[in-house]
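hey can u run this one w/ UFG bound, need the structure tokens asap thx
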Amino acid sequence: MKWEEALGSEHILVTGGAGYIGSHTTQLLLDQGYQVTVVDNLSTGHAWSVGDAELIQCDLREPVVLAGALRKKSFTGIIHFAGLSQVGESIAQPLSYFDNNVTGSLNLIDYAAQAGIDQFVFSSSAAVYGNPRAAVIDETHVIAPINPYGMSKAMVETMLAESARANDLRAIALRYFNAAGAMPSCGLGEAHDPETHLIPNVLKSLLLAADASPGDAYLKVFGDDYETPDGTCIRDYVHVTDLAQAHVSALRYVKDTAGAQAVNLGTGRGHSVLEIIDTCQQVTGKDIAHIIEPRRAGDPAVLVADNKLAGELLDWRPQRTLTDIVSDAWQWHQMSS
Ligand code: UFG
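ok here u go:
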């Protein structure tokens, strides 16, 4: 059997496939010949972003409805993105995060067991580490989340590890660092509302500057008094297309490997907020005005991934640079504004 035929017979359930990283991964799966069904409650995702995948609007917190909607389907694996993802909101509304992210995941893991699906890829986050105890962190770093968002991800990782031990589930948790960029050729990009992330905010400030009243368009930089070379926070920005590729590699990994595993997904390189603004200026050719605000609560000074394990287990090495990230995001924001 040729590999294209082999892939064609694989049917993947993608929860949250209408969201940012989920929609990019769905597109890549379709491009690579997988059959894809997206389950999404469309609370933050967009129906337009699932492309040619089948879309079922359903909430994971309704397990009977979910099982009914999926009754006649036979999946080879699950990629689970569905969940709320804003750190600040999770501090204000913790129960909503535990309900959506933990209850929803519990129902899905239970559905997988009932349906005999043993391949499970989970969208986790560097937020499980809490305040980093080293500048570059690997998967042995203590799990000590400092907000309900990170706690909810850590709880789901625990459920997967225990299910792997008890029920032969094959699971991998992918701990993203800072997802960024877009796939403008497919009409996909970062469309959060409200937007809290740095790169889209920098680029949107340029688009707003054209018709906003003075002051409104200014980009806020949260803190310039950190112990970093230029005083602003350092993060590890990884292209969403590279992340999508890691999910496809992770599907292959869980097919062949028993147990549960957690893997960092980052580039291993850090960039400060001011470096990001500088790269955005170079890519767009425009000056970007910014104002310095006080530190944002809960922001660590430096967060950079050690990504060796992803290379070893998934044969995954990010291919795209920071300039690629900003160029693709800029192209997409201009198209979608
Ligand atoms: N920042 C600004 N201005 C903005 C937005 C962000 O200065 O308008 C700064 C932040 O203070 C931070 C950096 O840019 O220093 C990056 O902030 P983001 O909001 O883009 O990303 P975070 O590092 O806060 O969040 C990421 C993921 C989360 C994950 C978290 C783990 O997006 O899902 O890392 O710490 F939980």
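The CA atoms of residues 37 and 54 lie 5 Å apart. anyway lmk if its weird
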